[in-house]
């Protein structure tokens, strides 16, 4: 049994090492770009890259582990087992070496690690080969051959430990349990650990320098995990032919010409900016009362004191899609999430990138795991220079199911904002709350209803954070944007596709706000970027969908949202809700809005396809 277990462990360990060695080779291949990182940067690339290296090792080890488990009970000639293993390891060696040798050559041209995009070009092999330099092909073929031979030689050494002998049932039974436990550990390696986030490329991102993040990415994982993403997105919703779609979208463009300058609602043109994304803060819950008292008294207070957006809508029902809408002005999708497509999301415009060009330091904070749904890769790629999340934090109170609660994070974030202000440089700081999320377990007991109590807790935490900032020197030149990531089904019978289900609060507060007011125009999360940037005098031409709400019309003002299979559009004249599962118009108090929704939905998918 020692040999059997040693064989499985050796295969896993060998695979990790064989994958890890790709990192220094890749860095050496691009030595000019890697030079600034220094030895410390090289080491961090290897260290952070181990997360996905172990995931790939888990997949590679799965078959040898299953075969070893089978040998406890089933007698098969050892030469048969060894023949299967030899063929299997030869295939792994050839596949790994081929992916790496192609990846390391293409990165210079593509700027991202190998993914299923390669298959598009291989559809016409003659055209693909015509664009390959002869000596480059020779060099990469030699690299592939040498690397494959090294991999195969290492696995052949590990195979010396393989033992096909069966055991008596009394011995086989307890060792079967032991092997199953080993299989459980292998599954955890495949999954990427025990946290909420599963294995994804975001696991290895650690730096605002995207080259170092790419260097840490395992190309085998990047390629194989993207195979299911090679969809023809442009064909998802073919409502109009291309010419008609483009013409209709031009009339809706957020970055189209306005009839005049934006109305100023801030005291200063270059305030420091804080964006607080409030988990599940539905408008229905903000307006709810228990025993005659508001569930969210602090939000109600801030609504009266700041700029309140009365008719504001979330673009989706998920945090990852809401974040992209808020921070990049890009509409949410129905069945997919562009945040989970790193090669697509990295090209999105963003509030952080635009302000970074203007000299703003950008940082984002979250008490949970930013690897979840590829958040960290999206944020680093779109200009957030510093990410602070659960792995970077340590408090006396242990984290909950999703991470550190909002009381801890709001207090910490307030201190960080004050510290950033004292540094004397303009900054953009973001915070994502988490306590108003299942399982709704919070150290608070003001409301009997468990769900509403969690929202009341976050409301109190955010209010206390605002009080801290108001009493600090940071307040006078500060714009604080409070906005929900999505709505919440409250009351429980609220239909998933109803406009009210997606209605959310947005409040602007801070010393930079000139005066309290209510904004009646209909809008949604995608409009935040253009509206904020226009107030700061920063161009927002690259935000195709984002409308400046304080600019004269055109463009027309409306709220837009999607659900799993459809969309809703709302404006001052009514609403239009369409469901793709039945291909029918569910609500049509303003039928003209169906064209708006169809145009935006189709254009979003065409846009993703072209990125």
Tags for this entry?
single chain, alpha/beta, 8-stranded mixed beta sheet, 4-stranded antiparallel beta sheet, 22 helices, 47% helix, globular
Task: Provide a quick synopsis of the model.
The chain is built from 22 helices and 14 strands. It is 47% helix and 12% strand.
Overview of the structural elements:
By secondary structure, this protein is an alpha/beta fold. It contains 22 helices and 14 strands. Helix 4 packs parallel to helix 10, helix 12 crosses helix 22 and helix 14 (about 295-305) packs across helix 20 (about 450-470). The two termini are about 50 Å apart. The mean pLDDT is about 90.
Topology overview:
Layout: H1 2-20, H2 22-29, H3 31-34, H4 38-71, H5 78-110, H6 117-122, H7 125-130, H8 134-159, H9 169-191, H10 210-216, H11 219-225, H12 242-250, E1 272-278, H13 283-286, E2 289-290, E3 293-294, H14 297-305, E4 307-313, H15 319-328, H16 342-345, H17 351-357, E5 361-366, H18 375-381, E6 386-388, H19 406-422, E7 427-432, H20 450-470, E8 478-484, E9 506-509, E10 517-524, H21 528-535, E11 559-563, E12 566-571, E13 574-579, E14 584-588, H22 593-610
Parallel strand pairs: 1-7, 1-8, 4-10, 5-6, 5-7
Antiparallel strand pairs: 2-3, 4-9, 8-9, 11-12, 12-13, 13-14
């Amino acid at each position: 049994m020692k040999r059997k277990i040693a064989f499985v462990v050796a295969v896993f360990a060998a695979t990790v090492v064989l994958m890890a060695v790709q990192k220094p080779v890749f860095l050496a291949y691009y030595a000019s770009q890697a030079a600034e990182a220094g030895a410390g940067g090289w080491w961090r690339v290897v260290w952070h890259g181990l997360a996905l290296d172990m995931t790939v090792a888990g997949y590679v080890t799965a078959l040898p582990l299953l075969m070893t488990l089978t040998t406890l009970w089933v007698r098969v000639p050892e030469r048969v087992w060894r023949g299967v293993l030899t063929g299997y390891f030869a295939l792994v060696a050839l596949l790994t070496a081929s992916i790496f040798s192609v990846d390391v050559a293409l990165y210079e041209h593509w700027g991202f690690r190998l993914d299923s995009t390669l298959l598009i070009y291989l559809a016409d092999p003659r055209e693909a080969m015509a664009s390959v330099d002869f000596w480059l092909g020779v060099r990469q073929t030699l690299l592939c051959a040498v690397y494959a031979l090294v991999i195969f030689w290492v696995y052949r050494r590990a195979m010396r430990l393989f033992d096909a002998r069966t055991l008596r049932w009394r011995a086989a039974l307890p060792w079967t349990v032991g092997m199953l436990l080993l299989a459980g550990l292998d599954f955890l390696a495949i999954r990427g650990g025990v946290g909420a986030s599963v294995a994804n490329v975001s696991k290895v991102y650690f730096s605002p320098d995207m080259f170092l993040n790419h260097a840490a990415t395992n190309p085998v994982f990047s390629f194989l995990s993207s195979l299911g993403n090679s969809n023809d997105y442009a064909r998802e919703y073919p409502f109009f032919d291309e010419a008609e779609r483009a013409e209709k979208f031009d009339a809706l463009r957020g970055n189209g010409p306005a009839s005049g300058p934006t109305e100023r609602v801030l005291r200063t043109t270059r305030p420091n900016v804080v964006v607080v994304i409030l988990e599940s803060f539905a408008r229905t819950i903000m307006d709810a009362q228990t025993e005659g008292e508001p569930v969210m008294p602090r939000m109600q207070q801030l609504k009266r004191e700041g700029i309140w957006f009365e008719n504001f809508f979330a673009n989706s029902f998920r945090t990852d899609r809401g974040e992209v809408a808020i921070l990049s002005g890009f509409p949410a999708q129905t069945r997919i999430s562009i945040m989970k497509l790193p090669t697509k999301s990295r090209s999105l415009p963003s509030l952080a990138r635009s302000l970074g060009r203007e000299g703003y330091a950008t940082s984002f904070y979250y008490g949970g795991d930013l690897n979840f749904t590829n958040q960290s890769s999206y944020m680093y790629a779109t200009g957030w220079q510093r990410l602070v999340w659960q792995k970077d934090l340590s408090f006396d109170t242990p984290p909950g199911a999703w991470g550190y609660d909002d009381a801890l994070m709001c207090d910490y974030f307030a201190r960080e904002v004050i510290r950033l202000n004292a540094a004397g440089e303009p900054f953009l700081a973001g915070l994502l709350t988490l306590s108003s999320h299942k399982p709704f377990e919070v150290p608070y007991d003001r409301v009997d209803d468990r769900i509403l109590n969690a929202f009341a807790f976050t409301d109190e935490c955010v209010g206390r954070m605002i009080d801290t900032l108001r009493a600090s020197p940071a307040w006078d030149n500060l714009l604080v944007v409070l906005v929900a990531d999505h709505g919440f089904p409250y009351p429980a019978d609220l239909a998933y596709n109803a406009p009210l289900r997606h209605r959310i609060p947005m409040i602007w507060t801070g010393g930079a706000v000139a005066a309290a007011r209510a904004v009646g125009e209909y809008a949604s999360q995608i409009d935040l970027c253009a509206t904020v940037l226009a107030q700061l005098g920063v161009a927002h031409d690259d935000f195709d969908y984002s409308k400046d709400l304080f600019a004269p019309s055109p463009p027309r003002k409306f709220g837009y949202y999607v659900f799993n299979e459809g969309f809703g559009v709302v404006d001052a004249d009514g609403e239009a809700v369409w469901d793709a599962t039945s291909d029918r118009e569910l609500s049509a108090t303003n039928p003209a809005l169906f064209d708006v929704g169809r145009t935006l939905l189709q254009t979003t998918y065409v846009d993703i396809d072209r990125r």
